[in-house]
């Protein structure tokens, strides 16, 4: 552990600053869209955007300390950037359930709508907690074995996220194909642009899936691996992909689906989020 360094490169202050600003702009857009449209079910997405901002601000602080890095900014940027996509994923899961309820097409879904969001968000919470636990171990690691343990737990959490997303995309595709095979899908499309939001859902899911796969490989390789030796990979496979995800939902905000849905759906989403653990973040239960 004596040769262990927080970074295997000198972090770029300009790159971190640029992404902190860009995430701040997209987050501001999400704040406006959330309150203007009362799309409360999309609060987790906004939280994820805020996590990204905090993460890159902490990375700026680390860059300013080069080469005498301190642990606190490093831990903050590592944890917040690692966990932000879990909040994006939670909102994406809820979009599919909302589309199915909106179209009254539960018979075309592999999973009942009453369970669909609960199942996938629960998986997301499990992934979140595992990554948080692994990150906490890394933050306090004093030995090589503790460092490895933290990496293994984070990898396991990321694998849970990848598996959950893979199953989710499969469920989405099956529902989409079944809807397209119904004779009245053109009529439904004229009233509700559901196919557009299915495509948005696929793109957002793919962005998070690729990012999570990158993180799995990164943590499997460990601190001495090739991916952690080059800062460019962080910005290519994490920062850029997550920024595109945020901008995607700025451009195609699911609040348009909300205008067609009932207040009961909104309450169900918020109650489910509270029950499944996101309310507990920050020490509340």
Automatic annotation (TrEMBL):
Transmembrane intervals: 12-32, 39-59, 79-103, 115-140, 152-175, 234-252
Protein name (Swiss-Prot/TrEMBL): RTA-like protein
Protein topology in the membrane: Multi-pass membrane protein
A GO term from the CC aspect: membrane
Source organism of the structure: Penicillium malachiteum
A Pfam family: RTA1
Entries under InterPro entries matching the protein: RTA1
Keywords: Membrane, Transmembrane, Transmembrane helix
Subcellular location: Membrane
